[in-house]
């Protein structure tokens, strides 16, 4: 089966195969951003009914890979686009990217026991002299930096993961649960836009002053104890955060 062709015998729904083919072509730059992806063109190309074509385009639109121009059609969005759905649990972004076939890479640095930042002490109500585990993580997708996160975890002194362990796990809290049985229960998020500093522009590969999305998160264990704090800076041109609310 040649690349870009459907395989009716694979058991994978046709809309999913079409979506995967188009997403790959958009991500690797094969798709022409100036040529609309009309239903008629895709019908002729794939030889299927309109239903799987429409479903594939709908999901590509919701994930940020295509956009619609009124009266002109659906167009590819150049460059990688990451949508974090509401169902992705806190700490699972790296695994979600991996399962989505986006080939993320994680680089961890600056592991140390430090006194918590003033804001963390205030938000969590902990002793400013308490030493917490700190490290910095940069996650890239398809070779492009996506976010830089500074993480602080309350954990016993004996919890001392290596750089390799943190990079392979994708989450320090996952290691904490695996090794010590301390599991996260809930997380509270605060988000705002900012302009890239010189340090952030170097880490994320953007120009100084470029728009960034900041998401600060407070973590709590299943029994309600403060577990940690994270400040993550995302490239606004690549990242969208979907959330739901209830009553």
Automatic annotation (TrEMBL):
Residues 12-79 form the HTH gntR-type domain. GO terms for molecular function: DNA binding; DNA-binding transcription factor activity. GO terms for biological process: negative regulation of DNA-templated transcription. It comes from the Bacteria. The keyword Transport does not apply. Keywords: DNA-binding, Transcription, Transcription regulation. Pfam families: GntR (PF00392), UTRA (PF07702). SUPFAM superfamilies: Chorismate lyase-like, Winged helix' DNA-binding domain. Signal peptide: none annotated. InterPro entries: Bact_HTH_transcr_reg, Chorismate_lyase_/UTRA_dom_sf, Tscrpt_reg_HTH_GntR, UTRA, WH-like_DNA-bd_sf, WH_DNA-bd_sf. This is GntR family transcriptional regulator. It comes from Arthrobacter zhangbolii.
């Amino acid at each position: 089966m040649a690349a870009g062709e459907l395989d009716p015998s694979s058991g994978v729904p046709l809309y999913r195969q079409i979506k995967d083919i188009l997403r790959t072509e958009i991500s690797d730059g094969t798709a022409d951003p100036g040529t609309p992806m009309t239903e008629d063109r895709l019908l002729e190309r794939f030889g299927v009914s309109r239903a799987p074509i429409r479903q594939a385009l709908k999901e590509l639109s919701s994930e940020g890979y295509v956009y619609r121009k009124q009266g002109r059609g659906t167009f590819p969005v150049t460059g990688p686009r990451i949508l974090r759905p509401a169902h992705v649990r806190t700490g699972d972004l790296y695994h979600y990217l991996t399962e989505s076939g986006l080939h993320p890479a994680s680089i961890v640095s600056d592991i140390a026991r430090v006194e918590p930042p003033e804001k963390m002490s205030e938000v969590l109500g902990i002793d400013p002299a308490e030493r917490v585990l700190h490290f910095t993580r940069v996650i890239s997708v398809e070779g492009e930096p996506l976010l830089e996160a500074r993480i602080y975890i309350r954990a016993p002194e004996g919890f001392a993961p290596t750089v390799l362990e943190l990079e392979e796990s994708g989450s320090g809290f996952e290691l904490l649960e695996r090794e010590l049985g301390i599991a996260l229960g809930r997380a509270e998020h605060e988000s705002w836009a900012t302009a890239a500093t010189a340090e952030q522009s170097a880490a994320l590969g953007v120009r100084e002053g470029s728009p960034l999305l900041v998401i600060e998160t407070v973590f709590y264990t299943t029994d309600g104890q403060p577990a940690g704090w994270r400040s993550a800076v995302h490239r606004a041109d690549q990242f969208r955060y979907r959330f739901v609310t209830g009553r």
